Amino acid sequence: MATVEKQVMVVGVDDSDHSSYALEWTLDHFFIPYASNPNFKLVLVHAKPSATSTVGLAGPGAAEVLPIVDSDLRRIAARVIEKAKEICISKSVNDVVVEVVEGDARNVLCEAVEKHHAAILVVGSHGYGAIKRAVLGSVSDYCAHHAHCSVMIVKRPKHKH
């Protein structure tokens, strides 16, 4: 009997609380209820910025600064992945593929969708207003318009005072 290949769900993870919430929400709604046989293969993707894009400078001193910045970015990426794995383990979701890819999160996530032939891309929402989104650029906005799959933007509910 042939086995049916599971659809892939890519979840973008970074060092924000919004990302952790989106991962937990996804696990709670798509994996835990189907613990014995989830409908999706889970792929977690962290986009690690390059040192040069982070520093954004060239000239005297750049050569000394870049290795330090790169080391910090690697440490942050390791921490992000470790936290994401801990969240998965705490929810008894152990069959997870984890990737760290250097580059801008918008491009990295859209390329991960293509690479894995993902059916769904999940990203957290930072809840920026229109001005901040315009200045900083919204990863979720970009992915919603450019990813070749359904994009689920998970927003943390607002707490009423």
UniProtKB/TrEMBL annotation:
Q: What is this protein called?
A: Universal stress protein A
Q: Which domain of life is it from?
A: Eukaryota
A Pfam family hit: Usp
CDD domains in the cross-refs:
USP_At3g01520-like
* Organism field: Quillaja saponaria (Soap bark tree)
Among Gene3D superfamilies, the record links this protein to: HUPs
Q: Which ranges carry the UspA domain?
A: 9-155
